[in-house]
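Appendix C reproduces, verbatim, an entry submitted by the partner laboratory led by Prof. M.T., so that reviewers can inspect both the input and the predicted structure.
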Amino acid sequence: MGTGTAVWATNYRSEFADFEGVTYLNAALQGPLPLDAARQAQAALEWKTHPYRLPDSVYFDLPDRIREKVARVIGGHIEEIAVTTGASAGMAAVAASIDWRPGDEVLVGRGEFPAHFSTWLRYEQSGKLRVRVVEPRGRFISADDYIEAIGPQTRLISASYVRFDNGARLDTVGLARACEKVGAALLLDITQSAGTMPMNIRDLGASMAVSSGYKWLLGPYGVGFFWVAREWIDRLPLGAVYFMALEGARNLHAMPTANVRPVPGARRWDSAETANFTNLAAFDSSLDLVLRIGTDVVERWIDSLVNEIIDGLPRTRCVLASPAERERRGPYVCITACDPNDTVALYQKLRAAEVSVSLRETALRIAPHIYNTTEDISRLMSVLSD
């Protein structure tokens, strides 16, 4: 029995709803909510219809469970995790927490996800910093491209570990060393990788990392996390602090109103209304599923499906638009029509055949997950070849 067959023997497809005949290969856009996570969200709604059933402890215990499970997924520590509403919320927390000086530079790669630009917009317009766009010298942006762009004014590099538009994975270790030499921070967006591979976040060399939780981590829309390396927690000036991140806030009957101080650790960057009962109850369950399966198993299964896509790609119609080498690629693959002008038509053809992928820039992003089967890939190949 091969590795892929052994993984699928557990039949993780049963953890999810019926997709109504759709071949869903779009986890990089939205991961489907597992059935148990939907049940947990419904149960949390009952707290609002019957609020007298809502225990005080849930305001803290629920987000703390998220912290603990996220830390296990990314190989971090619970005190380094803030609970947010998504990657953008974490990036906004970074922007608000740094004491910017005129002339400071933030480096962003050409074609990055828009949040890497919009986060810094107000600070750039007010003259507090300058965003400098890094041009790739090759087809995919590399660590060397960023390193070459680092200058004496570089304060932060804002980059995706895995790019949303082509699936290219950034070699972060050398980049982190280059940042350290000039005292710059490396902010990584790990949205398109968290949950799909075994990870030790510190090994990536980042100062901070952000992620949405509604893609590969299978949570509801509006969940995410912000990781801060321990040594950076005290280096970042204090930004906005939600009152439940204050010392003594757990005692709801006598909350602090004088000599207020944030608790130690990353909780000071929690998004407001941190407990967000419905979303976090569902996310708690989704993380349980990811941890129960294991990110090593998820990685092997996705790899086996992506390899099928690459090997079976009809070369007379399509070409690979992601790095061919596995170590340079994230958990999905992008393709284009041989004539790029035909890519939109190919996307529409897949939609008509009820095969769900994403159109990103001039490429189709195909993102299978643990619920997909080899039959799903065969259906995709059939439509691409027809």
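The two ends are 31 Å apart (CA to CA). Additional entries are available on request from the coordinating office.
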